[in-house]
Amino acid sequence: AQKVTQAQTEISVVEKEDVTLDCVYETRDTTYYLFWYKQPPSGELVFLIRRNSFDEQNEISGRYSWNFQKSTSSFNFTITASQVVDSAVYFCALRQNTGFQKLVFGTGTRLLVSP
Amino acid sequence: KAGVTQTPRYLIKTRGQQVTLSCSPISGHRSVSWYQQTPGQGLQFLFEYFSETQRNKGNFPGRFSGRQFSNSRSEMNVSTLELGDSALYLCASSQSTTSNEQFFGPGTRLTVL
What we know:
- Chain A has strands spanning 3-5, 10-14, 19-21, 24-26, 32-39, 46-52, 60-61, 64-69, 74-79, 88-96, 104-105, 109-114.
- Chain A has 115 residues and is mainly β.
- Chain B has 113 residues and is mainly beta.
- Chain B is built from no helices and eleven strands.
- In chain B, the strands form two sheets. In chain B, strands 2, 4, 5, 6, 9, 10 and 11 form a seven-stranded mixed sheet that branches. A four-stranded antiparallel sheet of chain B has the order 1-3-8-7, with no helix packed on it.
């Protein structure tokens, strides 16, 4: 069975601080995809980043970066120089590489960025 | 290019009633998935449709059903509503079953009284 754990329920930071959101996953599949989504108060889930299981290269995209470590089944997400507009709930998700679109989500981490 | 649209955005029903929610995917997208989001259970997968066929179903009772039309628009139906069905229902579309990106709509917030 697949499972995604986001142990941090809520994080509060002050603007311009860096913040890392943790994600640990469980799967028996050898190939899979990992995602981060952002959910602002409007409710719509906004896609942020994707990583497949056979590419452990960590990247930076603007203020976003991620650290994928297959050995520890972790897929952490960092926002550099946080802004008030980053305040939202962030979800980590897992998808099998089987041709199905089903996403298994973590419970989410609420990020509050204050000015 | 228009995004995923869901109608209605808000809905209030009473126990025992039934409800139909609609989702129009991004133009050209043929795969539609539905998710239920509640404070207690989080985001849970309901169904996935492609070319008018249900390809995958989550662990929900038979009161939850859905379908997809030839234009890729999808509807989900919940019969005999219960208080616990109150949730945000999110629809996601992707180009195909193997696409690596799903785009979500704004959701339909259902309240059951």
